[in-house]
Amino acid sequence: MARAQIVWYRRDLRVRDHPALHEAVASGAPVVPVFAVDPALTDGPAASGPRAAFLAASLADLDDALRERGARLIVRHGDPVDVLPALAREVDAAVVRWTADAAPFGRRRDERVRAALEGAGIDAVADPGQYVVDPTAVETQNGTPYTVFGPFRRRWEDAGRGPIHDAPQRIDPTADVGGEALPTAKDLGQTKDRPDVSDPIAAGGETEGLAAARRWLDSPIAHYADRHDRLAGGTSELSPHLRWGTISSRWLEARARRLSGEGPLAFVRQLAWRDFFAHVYRHHPEDRHREHQARYRDLAWEDDPEGLDAWQTGQTGFPLVDAGMRQLATTGWIHNRARMVVGSFLTKDLHVDWRHGERHFLRWLLDGEPVQNDGNWQWIASVGVDPKPYFQRLFNPTRQQQRFDPDGEYVRRWVPELERVPDKLLAEPWRMSDEQQQAAACVIGKDYPDRIVDHAEQREVAAARYREAGES
Ligand SMILES: Cc1cc2nc3c(=O)[nH]c(=O)nc-3n(C[C@H](O)[C@H](O)[C@H](O)COP(=O)(O)OP(=O)(O)OC[C@H]3O[C@@H](n4cnc5c(N)ncnc54)[C@H](O)[C@@H]3O)c2cc1C
Description:
alpha/beta; Rossmann fold; Serine Threonine Protein Phosphatase 5, Tetratricopeptide repeat; DNA Cyclobutane Dipyrimidine Photolyase, subunit A, domain 3; 3 domains; 20 helices; 46% helix; 6% strand; globular; binds flavin-adenine dinucleotide
């Protein structure tokens, strides 16, 4: 009988369209699916209360799906560099497979695990499956990586896609392999200081992910091109499932492409952003936490703990900024347009280092992942790849609100103090007269904060700082 194959699960928590699982099952060997609870993740800088809960639910769902097929999820605690070779020896595995990672931390870890396995005479195989297109499969004509999205996407459109695999019907397990109980959110990093959110936008697991994706593909996707910037809703909200691999991005793209119309096309284009940032950090791991554009590495940032606190808690006096930050703290997710506005506000109105925003997002976002988060923060701070002049990403929060939440549905939902403020003043409540404040039961400075900065003034300050850094 063929020697066992181990499938090491990480953030690919599904049985459908999972190339590593597919290959292991197709080999005819007994298969050992394993998840290693790695203290570097559960206690490290990327630990997050909301994501711990999502992960715990996803692992439980994965275990159910594996059991339905005859196997189960083996759980081990410890550094994967110790866990995987030990398990391989225990079950006499010839191969350990996993889904290739593009993130700097993941790649370093995987190389350490590969060396340990190969040192013990065990094969290590990284299969595709995390992205629509393998991050190394797209390159410029000179063979160099892309740093601008438009040309990347055009090449990405033509790149080959691997076959999409159904879930295996049956998985031949290895008898006699012991594992620990499925981890709880607490085992995965949730603590009193790193709590969950009260109303998560999505629950973990492939069952949930698939149902959400089917609902999205069934009809709302048709309106994506017109509605994706609408703050009150209009996007798929599938990012947590894509982040954890509880749905396959390859499958999702293929399904969207089967549909006609501008909505599905625009949605597919958006999936390319995720592959773009994976591509960027696959080739530029040194960009993590460091400005891609060298000229902005000495940009002057402000040390402003009060401003940072007002931003984090949604108390800046700018309704759209506060709505976005409160949506994050309550649901573990923010609409993309609001992410851009709060990101611009932190870096260009408060002049606070984008790394503070990046860390705060990583703590709360269900879809938070270092590569996408870092790439997007650098993008909005105008210091990263895909360069556009800083003033093109210097958003006026008042105008953004008037444009993308014209009837105030989003802002009133997240900032209930403003419920009775008339539409025409909702984006600038500080302009209300005393009588208007009384009539709206919203006294500025008492019921809702006065704006902490003047955007027109801070815009000039930001412009001067970027100009100076860019010219030096
Ligand atoms: C400051 C900032 C930080 C961000 N941090 C993250 C993060 O940690 N993780 C994350 O997945 N996204 C991040 N994004 C990108 C984007 O905001 C989210 O992917 C999107 O809002 C998720 O909502 P959705 O699933 O409804 O997206 P949809 O509009 O339905 O798009 C479909 C999918 O395309 C991908 N996508 C869309 N826009 C982007 C983008 N700009 N970059 C990368 N992928 C994209 C996502 O996987 C998304 O689920 C960030 C954006 C900003 C401005």
